[in-house]
Automatic annotation (TrEMBL):
One of its GO terms (cellular component) is plasma membrane. The lineage of its organism: Bacteria, Pseudomonadati, Pseudomonadota, Gammaproteobacteria, Lysobacterales. This is Glycosyltransferase family 2 protein. It comes from the Bacteria. The keyword Transcription regulation does not apply.
Length: 319
């Protein structure tokens, strides 16, 4: 039975590694004999400021398997991957980073697991080479929090490196929300998902585009997109503060009425006011987070715009 493969590679300022990446990926694709229906590599240039698009253009001229999409600006990795998923037309669709942190050599094994009848095979990092202890700790903490608060938890230590079946890709295409936390979306669609463990390499060249500011924002997005637990935290906090204040009030009244103590306690008053003010602001912030999210969704803006394209991809109506 003919079996086709598409590899989606989001690339943002990846001139340093893109050619090397393609050489390695091409070598892997050459060895895959199951691909009688062909393999496509879709490079999505996420509005790079360097020569990434020129390299993609050159690769597309030299290699018939290469297709390219150039987004009109930097929309972020999640949007770039979505553009690739919209353009992919294959029985197995691989998502892989351009920086060679995800070894292309793993693709045949991923596809083999997919063909056993699975819909999503995600690569799970066995070890995080080249990452600081602090990064390891924060990412472990993030997964732990996600597992506790999310209604359908996502697998740990999993990047976006994975292979998806045709119907899994079709399902993902249906999810057009703007707050795209892909790892959560992958888990949300369901179907048969399995993991494959591998050793993750350190970035080959260039810099990671993820600083802690972006990672923290991504974490907040991940939590608020898939859970309303923070709203509940605000509720509980407000409730307990109010009950404590009520009990304390009773105590003060009793003190005056029974023992005739004069009302003292400017410091306690200040502490209580500050505490209540803080708790209210926090609650407001949490609500604001969700209101902002609702606002962003209601605008129903497209997730990306395509500025230029190379090679053959699935004809999709440009968003
Ligand atoms: N990327 C992208 N748009 C962005 C940031 C990153 O398409 O705004 C791509 C990048 O080119 C790479 C992949 O996403 O192929 C992963 O990026 P990076 O290596 O910076 O992230 P990390 O590996 O540290 O998670
Ligand atoms: Mg990387």
């Amino acid at each position: 039975m003919p079996y086709s493969l598409a590899v989606i590679v989001p690339a943002y300022n990846e001139t340093e590694v893109l050619e090397r990446f393609h050489a390695r990926l091409g070598a892997v694709l050459d060895t895959m004999d199951t691909m009688d229906a062909g393999a496509t590599v879709i490079y999505v240039d996420d509005g790079s400021a360097d020569d990434t698009w020129q390299i993609i253009d050159r690769l597309a001229q030299a290699d018939a398997r290469v297709a390219g999409l150039r987004l009109s600006r930097n929309f972020g990795k999640e949007a770039a991957m979505t553009a690739g998923l919209d353009a992919a037309d294959a029985d197995a669709v691989v998502l892989i980073d351009a920086d060679l942190q995800d070894p292309p050599e793993l693709i045949p094994e991923l596809v083999a697991r997919l063909r056993e009848g699975n819909d999503v095979v995600y690569a799970t990092r066995a070890d995080r080479a080249g990452e600081t202890r602090f990064k390891k700790f924060t990412s472990a903490a993030f997964y732990r929090v996600m597992e506790r608060v999310s209604d359908n938890p996502m697998p740990r230590d999993t990047g976006d490196f994975r292979v998806l079946s045709r119907r899994a890709v079709a399902a993902l295409r249906e999810l057009r929300e703007r707050q795209r936390f892909m790892k959560g979306l992958f888990a949300w669609i369901g179907y048969r998902q399995v993991s494959l463990r591998y050793q993750r390499d350190a970035r080959l060249a260039g810099d990671t585009k993820w600083n802690y500011w972006r990672l923290t924002n991504l974490a907040i997005e991940g939590i608020t997109s898939f859970s309303v637990a923070p709203l509940r935290v605000a509720t509980w906090l407000g409730l307990s503060a109010a009950s404590l204040a009520f009990l304390y009030g009773l105590w003060v009244i009793l003190k005056v009425a029974v023992w005739g103590d004069p009302v003292r306690g400017y410091p306690t008053l200040l502490v209580v006011i500050l505490f209540m003010g803080g708790a209210q602001l926090m609650g407001l912030g949490v609500i604001g987070e969700y209101v902002g999210r609702t606002y962003a969704e209601t605008k129903r803006r497209p997730l990306y715009f395509v500025e230029d394209r190379r090679g053959a991809t699935r004809p999709f109506t440009e968003p």
